[in-house]
Amino acid sequence: MPPAHPGLVLKVAVPAPLRQLFDYLPPRGAALPAPGCRCEVPFGNRTLIGVVWGHEQSEVASGKLKAVRRVIDEQPLIDPDLLALCDHAASYYHHPIGDVVATLLPVLLRQGSEALLPGRLEWQLTAQGRFAEPAALARAPRQQQALELLQQHPQGLPADMLAGLDIQRSALVALEKKGWVVLREVEADTPVPRSLMAEVPPTPGTEQQAAIKAIQGAHGFTPFLLDGITGSGKTEVYLQAMEPLLKEGKQILVLVPEIGLTPQTVRRFEKRFNVPVISLHSGLTDRERLHGWLRARRGEAGIVLGTRSAIFTPLLRPGMIIVDEAHDGSLKQQDGLRYSARDLAVWRARLLDVPVILGSATPALETLQLARAGRYRHLKLHNRAGDAKPPTLLLEDCRALSGREPLSPASLQAIEDTLKQKQQALIFINRRGYSPLIHCHDCGWEAECRHCSVHMTWHKRDNRLICHHCGAQQRIPRHCPGCGSSNLGDAGTGTEKLEELLEARFPGASVIRVDRDSTRRKGSLDAALKKVHGGAPAILVGTQMLAKGHHFPNLTLAVILDADGGFLSSDFRGPEHAGQLILQVAGRTGREQVAGRVLIQSRHPEHPLLHLLLSGDYHKLADALLGERRDVGLPPFGHLALIRTESAKAEEGMTLLGEVAALEGLPEGVQLLGPIPAPIERRQARFRTQLLLLAPDRPPLHRAIDVLLARLDSHPMARRCRWHLDVDPVDLL
Ligand code: ADP
Ligand code: ZN
Ligand code: ZN
Asked: What percentage of residues in the chain have a pLDDT greater than 90?
């Protein structure tokens, strides 16, 4: 049979670990699928679902090419702007395009489900069904129940809602056979609200007003950094800035760090306007996620709220993109396609020609530098909204404190005073568990994970040692595995120990611990947050889960433990992240009438960077850090990429990266640092070796990556060593 489209070859993105598109002949006897349509293609001896990327006239003999088996979508499923975003991500992150597409598509679409919204199907009564007697169905109780329910709702009920009410489809089908009910496809209701505003917004302050005006005045692609201290009303600026766009029927995409952590913020977006809001969070089923995706694509959602992966949500009438807490580490994906949702947000806004707002009280130095260089418009909010005052930060010299007492006398006194005033205190430590180290007093043995080069954390409640890197668990040894001594002890402090200590020290006080362990059970985080919002006097003990975006009205004191570790970290971003964390924790205090106090317990109270932070002015710290980075050419003044191997034997990664790096022919200006063992040398029983690339400009960096990846691809050892590339890496450990 002659080909249907002579000379035409389809370029298809296939979920295979190769950085290329694959050629196929168009399907026989069918129309040519447009770019963005899914199709089934033969691949080796399997059938995979790929996405058509384009077509090409091909002179070469196409006899060897296989044909597309089946086209799944009649209309493109992926819009041109998202195809372009994928192209960008694939080339910027040097990642297989098929895998980029897989990151973009909801699971069910990846598996070939129809892109239909079954939520539009409704069961309705027929005229006969309206007068049918449920009693006649006494022997078919399920049908009876279904009939009764529909008679109570004569306008019809959505099929998925009936399923949720445990009405079985078979019962409905039986009623359908009797001619009593029908399944109809109804128009999705795109409600036209009488008024857009669902609640009256507060009058913006002067600085807020200026920011809102600037954003509303923007036409086309305009990146903004909304640089406002904690509690300055950034969320209010987003809400008011988006209003005219929503009025025009435009859609707003909002990225937030972790939706479950700040239900309050989500509710503010939901309550303000009479438009449908879709939240894409990790608690959704695959089907719900698909529906959210499709509804956003059909323009039904006015506001789409989601975490990092929501940057790939299709929008019919895009109006603006907002990245809240744009400094947050969760915006960077740490496996597979290691993308920065913050950077892709700016890229996507450019493709869509819409404004994009990056909001933060502690912007990443990369973002801040772009704003200072005039590439982003820099909007500043220096004051807290309403009457709230900024918190006072105090440094506590804790060098004399013994390891047995994690809290200084001054901190304990401050907590006591706070409780007396009927207010809340937050004790912050970024370490869960009881204590981070179990060791032998006689021979110095320390409990390490069998699979990772890190200490096991003692979890007293579970009576176990747990590795925070791979999850491995062990029983607590009675005797030292090194010398047999029973003189074992623990060192250091985690949230569990603090909780125990505080309960003993303040009997009767309510101690609320919030970390990943205490909130594992469904609903427990919400319950804890509700208690805190209630405002009754309490001591909160928590990790960074408590640092993000919360507005606790009666929290007036924060005590920060062990935060100065970051200032001495081997990671060059350590001080930046420590400073951000301290200011974010501080920013949870004093958000209403009573001003907040923050005690920073430190064993390095002379550290100059720590002193810069005490003014509470992030920019002072940022200036100092940017100065250091400029001197050594680190980001944002240079650009980094990381190649990391994971191998069963330590030498394998070293040899592979060593050989790949040793060859000539790299572009000038690119420095190779390494290969060296990763700071966490072993993880999940694999040795980790890394090679860093540093270049003052991006183009040579990308050319160097191309050269190195080509060598890796063809190196025989690369088959035994897993490896990955991270462009703009954040995790260097
Ligand atoms: P941020 O996002 O900068 O941390 P929020 O937008 O959450 O700040 O605002 C902090 C608090 O101040 C919230 O309770 C908010 O409702 C309130 N707020 C914001 N803007 C105003 C305003 N113009 N007038 C009165 N209260 C405001
Ligand atoms: Zn010992
Ligand atoms: Zn481990």
From this structure: 73
> Is 444 found in the same domain as 418?
no
Q: Which of 236, 325, 585 to mutate to test the pocket of ligand 1 (most atoms within 8 A of CB)?
A: 236
Please report which confidence band the pLDDT of residue 482 belongs to, taking 50, 70 and 90 as the band edges.
very high
Ligand 1 pocket mutation, candidates 235, 265, 268, 381, criterion most atoms within 8 A of CB:
235
In terms of domains, do 225 and 179 share one? no
Range of the domain at 273: 206-381
pLDDT digit string (tens) for 230-285? 999 999 999 999 999 999 999 999 999 888 777 788 888 888 998 888 989 877 88
Please give the DSSP secondary-structure letter assigned to residue 260: G
CATH code for position 534 = 3.40.50.300
Domain boundary residue among 601, 627, 653? 627
563 CA distance to ligand 3 centroid (A)? Answer: 24
Residue nearest to atom 5 of ligand 1 (CA): 233
- The residues lining ligand 1, judged by C-beta closer than 6 Å to any ligand atom, are 202-205, 208, 228, 230-236, 385-386, 551
Number of domains in the chain: 6
Q: Is 533 part of any domain?
A: yes
Per-residue pLDDT tens digits for 193-224? 456 777 889 999 999 999 999 999 999 999 99
- Whether residues 160 and 228 fall in one domain: no
Q: Dihedral sign for Cα 657, 658, 660, 662, please.
A: positive
Are residues 454 and 519 located together in one domain of the fold? no
Q: Which two tokens stand for residue 89?
A: 């991500």
- Give 564 Cα–ligand 3 centroid separation in angstroms: 25
**Alpha carbon distance 554, 461 (integer Å):** 30
pLDDT at residue number 416: 97
From the CA of 469, the nearest ligand is 3
Q: Please write the tens of the pLDDT for every residue from 125-135.
A: 888 898 899 99
Please choose from 261, 382, 550, 551 the residue to mutate so as to test ligand 1's pocket, defined by most ligand atoms within 8 A of CB.
Answer: 551
Residue 197: inside a domain, yes or no?
no
| Model pLDDT for residues 275-323, shown as the tens digit of each residue | 888 989 877 888 889 989 998 998 888 999 999 999 999 999 999 999 9
Quick one: 236 and 359 in the same domain? yes
Same domain, 210 and 349: yes
Backbone phi, psi, residue 639, to 5°: -125, 140
Residues near ligand 3 ion, CB 5 Å cutoff: 449, 451-452, 467, 469-470, 472
Report how far residue 647's alpha carbon sits from residue 637's, in angstroms, rounded to the nearest whole number. 32
- 3-state secondary structure (DSSP) of residue 481: coil
Domain end point (choices 627, 652, 674)? 627
**585 and 688 both lie in a single domain:** no
Could you please report the per-residue DSSP string of 121-188? EEEEE-HHHHH--GGGGTT-HHHHHHHHHHHH-TT-EEHHHHHHTT--HHHHHHHHHTTSEEEEE---
Tell whether 165 is covered by a domain. Answer: yes
Q: Indicate the pLDDT class of residue 2, thresholds 50, 70 and 90.
A: low
Q: Cα(190)–Cα(185) distance, rounded to whole angstroms? A: 15
Indicate whether 195 belongs to any domain. Answer: no
* Core vs surface per residue 447-475: b (16+ CB within 10 A) or e: bbbebbbbbbbbbbeeeebbbbbbebeee
Closest CA to ligand 1's atom 4: 231
Same domain, yes or no: 549 and 415: yes
**Residue of the CA atom closest to atom 15 of ligand 1:** 233
